[in-house]
Amino acid sequence: MTMDTAQQTLRDPPETPKSSIGRTAATAHARRVVSRSGTSFAWGMRVLSKEKRDAIYAVYAYCREIDDIADGEGDAQAKLAALDDWRQEIDRLYQGQPTKITAVALAKPIRRFSLPKKEFLLLIDGMEMDANGPIVAPSLDELHAYCRRVAGAVGMLSMPIFGAPPGEASDGFALSLANALQFTNILRDLQEDAKIGRLYLPRELLTKNNITGNNPLTVLDEPGFSRVCEEFGAMAAAFFQEVRAALDHIDWRTVRPALPMMGVYEQYLNRIKARGWDNVKQPITLSKTQKLVTGLRYAIAPPLKS
Description:
By secondary structure, this protein is mostly helical. It is 67% helix and 0% strand.
């Protein structure tokens, strides 16, 4: 983030946003969104101060709201209109005039932690890709662009809240972890995504293994599909190694809230590998206890390079 951008984020949202919605009510709303979601990331945020935790919850509530638009009922035009309404709301928010309760919850974190506007807009860009979808066999460049928007933006918004110092190492940690989580999520949810017409695996890998079909459900049964998944799994594993490398250059305690999620998703990837690449339709799950134990292990000590 440039100095000009940082000054803009500090300057635009005033101390008290012009809204009929109270800040206390908005903060409570964001907490309820996190609680109702049942997301496993929430307990990892308990190591944060209340101010930082409320900021992360507000970011999560925003992500949840626009994700629900992209994945919800309705045609593409209705979804795109709703997402464009949020794009306008982000403009209003940075002018100090939010109208939505989630945007009010974001006003103080944006000012306090200098959260860049472009990352909120990138998230909308990513949701628009899904709303315009379904996404089927994107190019690798398109997949990286999608991950940067729907996952990388979350990481880039989280780092200043955590207190990580700005710079290449912190950005590398955030973006590598985002890719690792997203690639693992794609492998874990292949069957579920195929049922709604989605296939996020890159076209280059499919073509390389002689898969040319466009129907996600039938693609999963192609003879070369296991090789596609194996290669994609190797890419996910490489991103986890990039995260470890980035941890050599930053104080791991500043990103401790993110490490439990890293541990849980790395465990998912290990389970997927152990299941075998020929069994992509077999569900992979982790119990709450398994997630807790894995998350605690990563939160107590930084994961080392392997």
